[in-house]
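Example complex used in Figure S2.
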Amino acid sequence: MNLDTPIPTSVPVLVAGGGPVGLATAVELRHHGVRCLVVEPRASVSWLRPRAKTTSARTMELLRRWGLAETLRSRAPLPVSWSQEAVFVTNLLGREITRIGACFGLDLAGSDLAAEPGQQAPQPLVEEVLREAVGDALLTGWQVSGLSEDADGVTVRVAPAGGGEEREIRAEYVVGCDGPRSVSRAAIGARYEGRQDERPNFNIVFRAPGLAERIPHGPAVHYWVLDPAQPGIVGRLDLKETWWCIAQGVRAENADPVRLLRTLAGADIDVEILATDPWTARMLLADRYASERVFLAGDAAHQNPPFGGHGFNTGVGDAVNIGWKLAAVLKGWAPARLLATYESERRPIAADTIEAAALNMATGAPELADPSLMGDAAEFEKVRPAVAEAVLRTKDSEFHSLELVLGYAYVNSPIVFPGAGERLPHRWLAPGASLYDHLGPGFTLLGDQNSSEAAVVTAEARALGVPLHVADLPDEPLTLVRPDQHVACRGSVPAGALRHSLAHDL
Ligand SMILES: Cc1cc2nc3c(=O)[nH]c(=O)nc-3n(C[C@H](O)[C@H](O)[C@H](O)COP(=O)(O)OP(=O)(O)OC[C@H]3O[C@@H](n4cnc5c(N)ncnc54)[C@H](O)[C@@H]3O)c2cc1C
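Predicted assembly (506 residues):
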């Protein structure tokens, strides 16, 4: 813990919490040249609590925008080409029932749909890459103990994580990324609304030398075990000997992790338990996301079941949305009322994500498990088609959710033009050269720059002091692209488009 680190008395933006979403917020602010301080109690990332494994194609695109996609990929223990499949089996060493390919957008390399395919990477690795990018703006060993807001700013009380004397930091704005038990959420009087699943879940991280070589189903990012004696999901954390497992319906106090893993395997495999982590799935959405100067992001604002891999990925979308808007206000190219559009744009996305993830959870390994699968070969073959059909029918949306991951749009936002708000449709201009690589950190005007409409937009940008990058791509329809790669308007860009997109007219 860096308790001796000098703590600033004031900072433009204080980010409470340095999980993936707080760190992403800081990286986004840095992308726009805004100084911030991330206050995080954990001295280092939690390697034995690798909750998220799926970094979505959209998050990878945003990492590319920050220059971090290759860093994450090069350090990810499971290369994206290693496997893109989920295999459904009776036991790890048992029979195969069916398989689903092209999971989690892992197959998108070279596709026009996205600038980056998804990537399997343990959450602590993602956090480590982001921590390095945040650099000395990360203050570890400290936590936010409270905050109070007034017309000019926010006074944030911070204290050493292990207890000790409080200090005060004055911030113009606070982004509360302090997770499920958010102090920031309580401070602004916001409340979670929703429900939690009754079924307990039990994660195990374990070493199993030689297990991979014994599994007859080939590489897979997920092995779904449909043995009614112990259904669950198992995957590799690396290509050495480390694995993860989610056992549903298991209470920590009753769990015998070694026996549980051997039942999943269907054999007395050698295992060494490295860590266990009980958790409950929650479908929760904060009733509001913001006060005047404090904004909630990530799990502090919403929680969804992990099935489909959306939790932190949705939070990274929050981080980018609030990050560029805070930069616009702090740099003086937008009025403070732009910040109110953070909640109106992001809260509906979280609501849709919670609904989709809850649907994914409704049919899990316990529901798909069938005692007849465990019978002799004839019994198995008799029941296999029906179980395989149920898997493909109910699990497709969990593994193929590009509509949600890439397709969300801010359609009802007051700052986008009718029919716009979607993520800029991606295409490759040449092998390896993404259309997105032509976007600037601020707004971008794509298309034929010789048009009179283009001249009006560039003049407006100069007048408002808005950073506008122009990308002279005559084959593209004239498009005003926001800093978050979403379309403000497309086809025709009317006079006043930037004013509208930055809430000057609201
Ligand atoms: C089994 C499982 C699998 C999952 N798989 C995926 C997946 O594949 N893909 C995906 O996108 N998501 C997944 N998730 C969800 C993902 O783990 C969370 O959504 C993610 O951690 C949320 O990030 P966050 O930064 O918002 O919150 P957190 O990760 O909870 O981080 C909050 C941070 O705030 C800090 N903090 C707490 N209190 C304070 C305070 N008072 N002051 C300052 N700091 C504070 C904490 O130390 C922590 O670092 C999974 C979750 C589970 C349980």
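The CA atoms of residues 428 and 434 lie 5 Å apart. The two ends are 45 Å apart (CA to CA).
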